[in-house]
Design brief:
Strand content: 25-35%
Strand order of the largest sheet: 3-2-1-6-5-4
Structural class: alpha+beta
Shape: globular
Distance between the termini: 28 Å
Radius of gyration: 14 Å
């Protein structure tokens, strides 16, 4: 598990006074991706129009370019505004296989100023059951601190 306090401090230092959401997403995706070898694909899907997510800054192999809110784990996080922790993607109804190597997934909604959904933060692992609720809690705190003013 990453040293989340150190990761949060690094992200805070790198993003201090930055308000551009894409720059923030790029920095956060990079730092989180390299913080733990469980993270095989780490990135954002941005809300670009009602009910639609488009790929944003990410680290790892290719991802799906467009994900509707009614499809997959990312769509479920966007649609419900709730964290999706999926220990086995094959058991998730409607899972979208953007990468055949993905075995488990953690997706967190990302809220900007006023609680507006601006996207989701997607972490994929090539290991089954790779993520914990501790990961979700720590990453949600980092996302909230980073994007609350955007």
């Amino acid at each position: 598990m990453p040293d989340y306090p150190a990761l949060a401090a690094t992200i805070r230092a790198l993003t201090h006074d930055e308000t551009d959401p894409v720059a923030l997403m790029a920095t956060l995706a990079c730092e989180v991706h390299h913080a733990d070898d469980r993270f095989d694909w780490t990135g954002f899907y941005r809300v670009t129009e009602p009910g639609v997510l488009k790929i944003g800054p990410y680290q790892g192999g290719h991802g799906c370019l467009v994900i509707p809110f009614d499809k997959g784990v990312c769509g479920a996080a966007a649609r419900t505004g709730q964290v999706q922790l999926v220990p086995d993607v094959d058991a998730f109804p409607g899972h979208i296989a953007c990468a055949s190597s993905t075995r488990s997934e953690l997706v967190l909604p990302v809220f900007g100023r006023g609680g507006t959904l601006i996207g989701v933060f997607d972490l994929d692992s090539d290991r089954p059951d790779a993520f914990t609720w501790d990961d979700a809690r720590e990453l949600a705190a980092i996302l909230q601190e980073t994007f609350a003013g955007v």
